[in-house]
Amino acid sequence: MPSNEATISEAQQTANRTNAQKATGPRTPEGKARAKMNALRHGMTGQFYVLSDDDRSAYLAYETNLLAALAPVGAYERDLAISITQNRWRLHRARAMECNIQGLGQHDLADNYATATPEVEVSIAQAQTWLNSHHALANMTLYENRIRRDVARDKKELDELQAARKVAEAQAREEAELLLAHSVMKKVPLAAAIHVNGFEFSTATLRTSLSHKNALAVARFHQKNNWDPAKPFPHPYQNAA
After folding, report:
1. Which stretches of the chain are assigned E, i.e. beta strand?
2. Residue 137 to residues 87, 99, 134: CA-CA distances in angstroms?
3. CB neighbours of 194 closer than 8 A, spacing ≥ 6?
4. N or C terminus of the chain: which is more exposed, having fewer CB within 10 Å?
5. For residues 35 and 73, what is the distance between their CA atoms, to the nearest angstrom?
6. For residue 20, what are the contacts with CB-CB under 8 A and spacing of at least 6?
């Protein structure tokens, strides 16, 4: 006598063959439009991604929002950010696929069980769906774990790059402010921007920054001296702002 597992497997294969014969694809113009697939060429990588029109729009909106949150600067940071975005999208897709497998199973098994309550029928259908698809669901978990590791690796590298860049930018900005203050002191014509160590700072932006620093320094000085207006505070950047 064949085992129960073999019987279930054979029955499932028969059902799969029957369902496959019925699956003729979309027939109506509306159905064909929904199933239409277009290629999306990603501007950063130049690669083609085949997506439905709805998925394409959803992905582009998702990428725009996530890239804004990750705030990459430069080609390499942006490449890492896109990799993170695409893998996060794959995670959402995997979770949706898991739910869809459960939904498909309950749809196919809905008429197979008759119990006292609908809740029991749903529970049985869910259990049978897991028995029929547990290998696929287990593989889905492995798939998700690999994606999470990729996201964590790329995010760590991106964070390190951005931290180093911000330190270098802060040092360059401080030097640019000093150069601007020195130019103002010497009364030489000011350029529209000052370049330091590969960073560019507009003179207008530097003036705003120096003005803010000067105001804070004056306020702290007078606070320390009990707000005595008779004590002037000569700030080295005062005239630069």
Report:
1. 37-41, 48-52, 193-196, 199-202
2. 19, 10, 5
3. 176, 179, 180, 200, 201, 203, 206
4. N
5. 37
6. none
What residue type is 208 in one-letter code? T
pLDDT at 5 over 50: no
d(CA 44, CA 82): 8
| Strand ranges in 22-152 using DSSP code E only, listed in sequence order | 37-41, 48-52
Tokens 């309550």 belong to residue: 117
Reduced to 3 states (helix: H, G, I; strand: E, B; else coil), residue 52 is strand
Do residues 240 and 184 lie in contact, with contact meaning Cβ atoms separated by under 8 Å? yes
Residue-wise pLDDT for 29-53, tens only, equals: 665 555 555 555 555 445 556 667 7
pLDDT in tens, 114-173: 666 777 777 777 777 777 777 877 888 888 999 999 999 999 999 999 999 999 999 999
pTM confidence score: 0.64
Q: How far is the C-alpha of 93 from the C-alpha of 14, rounded, in Å?
A: 29
